[in-house]
TrEMBL record:
This is TetR family transcriptional regulator. Residues 40-59 bind DNA. It comes from Mycolicibacterium sarraceniae. Keywords: DNA-binding, Transcription, Transcription regulation. One of its GO terms (biological process) is negative regulation of DNA-templated transcription. Gene3D superfamilies: Homeodomain-like (1.10.10.60), Tetracycline Repressor, domain 2 (1.10.357.10). GO terms for molecular function: DNA-binding transcription factor activity; transcription cis-regulatory region binding.
Length: 245
């Protein structure tokens, strides 16, 4: 059931005792209770124990507040998903993808602010650019061209974000419809008209579901393609070495 847009009222603050950081922190607290969609300035004022005009003094409209929240969310996300080198490039990239997904799935607020509200924002694109540079350099060192390394990382990022957004939209849909009783990715097909669909669906495979099985399969496909490109790139070097003998 969807959370009602209510806020826990605090003792009223003295005039002038609130600052932008307090407001942003309180907005995150409130959003955890009522969601980003239901966050409002009057509710936030009640939550913080201040008059709503005290909030408008710093943030003239909700969109300004959400921009400030997004900036903080982006910093939190980058801090939570560092690119940490593992035994080899494949394990490193796979671990990074799983960490990204886990971070977003564990924080609906981060997902709503970064992936849904600010998906095409330049700020979201620039977030973690040093980590992306490190990842591309690691893939180039493994044998990919710079272009293929960039495309591989980009494909992984799109795969992670798409998986998370689909799951988040499903959760929003269920929360908005208290009578929902069947997943959109429920068992499909029947033994007579679509026997293949019926069999794999009964075994737990889901079309379009943002579940672990589909995520891991897609991730492995991206990694396999990158590995094939690396092997393909080794052939000219090997042939050149043979000609020099």
């Amino acid at each position: 059931m969807a959370k009602s847009a209510t806020a826990t009222k605090r003792p009223r603050r003295e005039r002038g005792s609130i600052n932008p950081d307090d407001i942003i922190a309180g907005a995150f607290e409130l959003a955890e209770q009522v969601s980003i969609d239901n966050l409002s300035m009057p509710l936030l004022g009640k939550h913080l124990g201040v008059g709503v005009t005290s909030i408008y003094w710093y943030f003239r409209k909700k969109d300004d507040l959400l921009n400030a929240m997004t900036d903080r969310a982006l910093r939190e996300y980058v801090f939570a998903t560092p690119y940490v080198e593992a035994a080899d490039w494949r394990e490193t990239l796979a671990n990074h993808a799983r960490a990204m997904r886990k971070t977003f799935l564990g924080s609906p607020i981060l997902c709503d602010l970064i992936l849904i509200r600010s998906a095409l924002s330049p700020r979201a694109v620039r977030a973690g650019e040093f980590e992306v540079e490190k990842a591309i350099a690691s893939l180039v060192e493994a044998g990919l061209s710079t272009e293929n390394a960039f495309d591989t990382y980009s494909a992984m990022s799109v795969h992670v974000r798409g998986s998370v957004v689909l799951q988040r939209l499903y959760e929003k849909n269920v929360a908005a419809n208290e009578h929902a009783h069947q997943r959109e990715d429920a068992i499909i097909g029947n033994a007579e008209s679509t026997p293949l669909l019926a069999r794999v669906s009964a075994e737990g495979h889901r079309i379009g579901a943002a579940d672990e099985r589909n995520f891991e399969f897609g991730l492995e496909c991206i990694l396999d393609h990158a590995a094939a490109l690396i092997e393909e790139g080794k052939k000219p070097a090997a042939a050149k070495a043979r000609r020099k003998r």
